[in-house]
Amino acid sequence: MSVQGINKHAVLPPIISRSDKEFLERMQRYIITETQRVGCNEEGPADEYYIIYRNVFDKVIEYVTAYKSILTSIKKEYDAFIETIKKDQRTAFSLHGRLKVLAGEPTALIYHRKRILQLQEKMKHIENNSSKIQLQIDEIKQLRAEYDAKEVQSCTFCKDPSKPIPGTVFYLKYLRGVLLWFRGLLQWLGSLLWCEFDPWSGNFHMLWMRPKNK
């Protein structure tokens, strides 16, 4: 056999065993079934697509014995690389959210400043109204005090007309006593003059006969 013939024979595809062929067919069916089940394709979603092929890789490592160590190392590097990409994606998503927040802050700041100015204007208006109301209250209090003072001065002795003026009760009793004394005196004088004193008319009436002594 010539060298050329040996080289031609070397490039022929390797003959796989029946068990290997069945294993590859099972893996191919697994990939098709899982991608259809989760509804993904080669363009995405990336997470589901990555999980399917990672499971296939694990099954291949379990099936192959001669290349198990090297395939395990390859898978570890592959998983680390994928995890780095996913971490970078999460970081980029977080930064994008922060960027949106920062972009919206100037608008929110302008709104809050405008709202502060409006509230300050309302506070000034309320304070002015409060000052005016307080002045009106003070004026009403002053007018009330002046009115009460005048009322006290004008009604010192006439707050209750039904009540006697202090000191007059004793004076009236004294005058009644004096009046009775004078009446008694006049009656005594009338008896001496044979006349009778009429306290109602204040006159003397002559008697025809002198009253008998008891």
TrEMBL record:
Quote any Pfam family the record assigns: TSNAXIP1_N
Q: Domain (Translin-associated factor X-interacting protein 1 N-terminal): give its ranges.
A: 28-141
Sorted alphabetically, the keyword list is: Coiled coil
Q: Which InterPro entries match?
A: TSNAXIP1_N (IPR032755)
**Species whose genome carries this gene:** Sus scrofa
Q: Coiled-coil region(s) at which residues?
A: 116-153
Name under which the protein is recorded: Translin-associated factor X-interacting protein 1 N-terminal domain-containing protein
